[in-house]
Amino acid sequence: MSSSRPIALVTGASRRIGIAAAIARALAQDGWDVATSYYRPYDATMPWGSAPAEADALADELRQAGARALAIEADLADIDTPARLFDTVREHLGAVTALVMSHCHSVDSAILDTTVQSFDQHMAVNARATWLLVREFGRRYAGVHGAGRILAITSDHTAFNLPYGASKGALERIVLASAREFAALGITANIINPGPVDTGWMTEEFMAELAAQTPLGRVGQPQDTANLARFLCSAAGGWINGQIVYSNGGIKSPAY
Asked: N or C, where is the chain less crowded by C-beta within 10 Å?
């Protein structure tokens, strides 16, 4: 199953309307082979629920776009998962050139009512798994100098969502550190802050409120984030490194 196409690992792609799915499609269209990861038990606790067929359906879409594709269920709270992910991708597709981290654990709670268990779970998935994935990528990368890519999705949603926001802050520092520490490998590392994105979680009222706060008069769509991700993963985006890039339509005072 050899291929001349570069290989991307995109985490958090359990829903076809999500940001990770949009990024995976964009990369497949741009000539990448794509492995995705997902975790149904987390989705089952969310309002949208778990849809077991969605991850495989996304992989089929990627194949129809000309990519070799692989969908892997992975619990990123498990410290052994990152190495297993990279092993599986290498076995079925080859060595990873781009690591795109769009996974997250997000359960709202404020400073006063956040539990230690919730804080630790957010940190395990959003921060510790990010570190372990980045570490695994750095250990294994042997590609062309300047071709390697690390990309992560962050958020400003911290007030009344303390463990999520705090863990995303940790994610940012980890990825920014890799831009310097992996310099000799020729890997760029960047973060996208997309602002609020319509992936099915917004009410009509909340969407209208956010649109009114945005100069372009609408809320973000997954494809907006994917458009930037595909550029940062491309050769043309190779001079952008160690940055948090906002792709949020110019929203100034998000109420999310």
From this structure: N
Predicted pLDDT of residue 253: 59
Alpha-carbon distance of 90 to 163, in angstroms, equals 33
CB 179 within 8 A of CB 190: yes
The residues spanned by each domain of the chain are 7-246
Query: What is the residue whose two structure tokens read 């494809």?
Result: 223
Q: Which amino acid is it at 243?
A: Q
In this prediction the pTM is 0.95
For residue 202, give Cα distances in angstroms to 110, 137, 151. 19, 34, 25
Amino acid identity at 193: N
Catalytic positions, please? 164
Tell the burial category of 215 from Cβ atoms under 10 Å away from its Cβ (0-12, 13-18, 19+).
exposed
Distance CA 108, CA 128 (A): 19
Cα dihedral 237→242→247→251 (10° resolution):
-150
- Binned at pLDDT 50, 70 and 90, residue 31 comes out as very high
CA–CA distances in Å: residue 164 to residues 103, 171, 197, 243: 12, 10, 16, 21
The helix (run of H) or strand (run of E) holding residue 171 is helix 162-181
Burial class (CB in 10 A: 0-12, 13-18, 19+), 235: exposed
Q: What is the Rg, in whole angstroms, of the alpha carbon atoms belonging to the chain?
A: 17
